[in-house]
Design a protein that fits this description.
71% of the residues lie in helices and 0% in strands. By secondary structure, it is an all-alpha fold. The longest helix has 30 residues, at 12-41.
Length: 42
């Protein structure tokens, strides 16, 4: 690959969507952990 080749990056909206999905996955995992703590505390 040459330094003058264009970067192989997805378009900006795809990168934004990937970042949003990553954040959503982290929030969902944290919510599951909290739900497990609440369920085990009952």
């Amino acid at each position: 690959m040459l330094w003058s080749d264009p970067k192989n990056q997805p378009p900006k909206f795809l990168r934004d969507m990937q970042a949003m999905l990553r954040r959503t996955g982290v929030l969902l995992a944290l919510a599951m952990v909290v739900a497990m703590f609440v369920a085990s505390a009952r």
